[in-house]
Amino acid sequence: MKQLTAHSIHPGARASGARRPARDRAPAPAATETVDLSLRLLEHLVALREPIGVSDLARAFGTSKTKAYRHVQTLVRHGFVRQDRATRRYEAGIKLFALGERLRERFGVLPAAREDMARLRDETGQAVALSGLAGDRVVILELFHGHAIVEFGTRPGTLLDLHASAHGKVALAFGPEGLLERCLVAGPLKAWTPQTICSRGALERAVATVRKRGWATAPNEVLTGVNGLAAPIFDHRGDYAGGIAIAGSVQHIAATPSPAQIAAVKAAASNISRKMGWRPQ
User: Fold this and answer.
1) What angle do CA 193, 198, 199 make, to 5 degrees?
2) Which of 95, 191, 227, 235 lies 20 to 30 Å (CA to CA) from residue 218?
3) Where in the chain are the domains?
4) Concatenated DSSP letters for the chain?
5) How confident is the model at residue 9 (pLDDT cuts 50, 70, 90)?
């Protein structure tokens, strides 16, 4: 079975592999240095795919083995990190998963969406993802794999680029006021592929189109050969509550999706919105 990278599900998703710890961050104040290192160790362990020994942890952060051991053992005692008794290596603990699940459920759209996500997956055969806004970032809240033999590496918690994802463009079009401007001034828009929208004018035009037609795509914009089709979800106040999308290869979801695919995604978004208390004007 072919496994695509973590950003395959929708243009803009971040890779889920291990990251190198950032050593060039501004130094933490002395009073918080201990907490700072513990948190950075925890982030590093979450990003790793395999358990790691204390010597490698110390080397990765440029600190002593004794200091790394002391910090990681504190995390073990609190359940945030697990140590394998046989290998003595460390990995992220189940407590983080439990806390993440509790946080994820705070997004009211999640329990309202699961039935319609399954129905959309069965109707289209494509992977279906639900997203929400966490600050000014789009985050995947839930993912149902499609019926195709290709699996996508995106998972709940994956962050998506606003400018290069179908979910992100829906958020820019229907989300909080000022989100588009904040996206544009945050820094250069990353060119994932030659098709990624990277200029202010082009992104503003794309968002205006999404706002007019009520759905967004992002073909080949972060990964060649992959497209997503997203529509917005609204709450009882008529405010943006998230997005739902199908994703797959451009062979199955064209740059201009089929009318049936568009109708299916918009219907799912509308059904979830109604469950959230939204009523069309």
Assistant:
1) 155
2) 235
3) 30-100, 102-275
4) --B--TT-SSTTBPP-S--PPPS-SPPPPGGGHHHHHHHHHHHHHHH-SS-B-HHHHHHHHT--HHHHHHHHHHHHHTTSEEE-TTT--EEE-HHHHHHHHHHHTTSTHHHHHHHHHHHHHHHH-SEEEEEEEETTEEEEEEEE--SSS-B----TT-EE-TTTSHHHHHHHHHSSTTHHHHHHHSSPPP-SSTTS--SHHHHHHHHHHHHHHS-EE-TTSSSTTEEEEEEEEE-TTS-EEEEEEEEEETTTS-SS--HHHHHHHHHHHHHHHHHTT----
5) very low
CATH topology assigned to domain 102-275 = Beta-Lactamase (3.30.450)
| pLDDT tens digits for range 173-199 | 999 999 999 999 998 999 999 999 999
Residues ≥6 apart with Cβ < 8 Å to 35: 28
Domain 30-100 falls in which CATH fold? Arc Repressor Mutant, subunit A (1.10.10)
Global pTM exceeds 0.90: no
Tens-place pLDDT, residues 259-268:
999 999 999 9
